[in-house]
């Protein structure tokens, strides 16, 4: 199952974060406009992501809310008919929350660097180290996230435990 190690932090200066990310990036993927519709679930999270870069996808995932880098187990399911899918899932499960964001995406090896402007919340930096989920690879991913955290100057005080969907609740 695909897995990522994720770290999220508030960002006081998105322009400076962009400059630092560009200096580190092995690849710049561009700007993505995303709308994430979260459906009501008993456990975990389940969203329909509508992306200007990658189309629509269903993403069910399990991830604890914790301020430090945390593991997220997920599946990405392409959705050819997002409007019909959203309507059906809304009727079946109910919509919990909708998150709208502008996301700039860079890669450092296998780690995604997201520079996010989230409607109603502000600016964030998110790091996602993606790997196959084996225990042996987790230590390597933690090292990469720690390296990027240091280079991007992400401080403990800026770390965020909750998802954007969870932050919108408060």
Task: Tell me what the structure shows.
The protein has 170 residues and is α+β, with helices and mostly antiparallel strands. It has one domain (3-167): Hypothetical Protein Pfu-838710-001, CATH 2.40.320.10. It is built from four helices and nine strands. The termini are far apart.
The order of strands across the largest sheet is 1-5-4-3-2-7-8-9
Tally of individual domains: 1
Q: State the separation between the terminal residues, measured CA to CA.
A: 32 Å
Q: Which CATH-level-2 architecture? A: Beta Barrel
Order of helices and strands: EHEEEEEHEEEHH
* Gross morphology: globular
Could you name the CATH topology?
A: Hypothetical Protein Pfu-838710-001
Mean of pLDDT: 95
Can you summarize this structure?
Helix content is 26%, strand content 44%.
Question: How are the SSEs placed, and which strands pair?
Answer:
Layout: E1 3-10, H1 14-24, E2 27-39, E3 45-51, E4 55-62, E5 70-74, E6 77-78, H2 82-93, E7 95-108, E8 111-118, E9 122-131, H3 135-151, H4 164-167
Antiparallel strand pairs: 1-5, 1-9, 2-3, 2-7, 3-4, 4-5, 4-6, 7-8, 8-9
């Amino acid at each position: 199952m695909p897995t990522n190690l994720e770290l999220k932090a508030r960002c006081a200066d998105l322009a400076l974060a962009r400059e630092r990310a560009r200096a580190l990036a092995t690849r710049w993927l561009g700007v993505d406009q995303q709308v994430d519709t979260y459906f009501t679930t008993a456990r975990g999270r389940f969203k329909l992501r509508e992306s200007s870069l990658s189309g629509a996808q269903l993403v069910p995932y399990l991830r604890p809310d914790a301020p430090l880098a945390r593991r997220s187990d997920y599946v990405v399911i392409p959705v050819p008919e997002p409007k019909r899918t959203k309507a059906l899932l809304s009727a079946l499960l109910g919509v919990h929350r909708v998150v709208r964001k502008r996301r700039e995406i860079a890669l450092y090896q296998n780690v995604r660097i997201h520079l996010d402007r989230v409607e109603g919340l502000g600016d964030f930096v998110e790091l996602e180290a993606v790997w196959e989920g084996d225990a042996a690879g987790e230590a390597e991913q933690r090292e990469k996230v720690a390296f990027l955290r240091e280079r991007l100057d992400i401080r403990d005080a800026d770390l965020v435990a909750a998802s954007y969907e969870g932050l919108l609740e408060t």
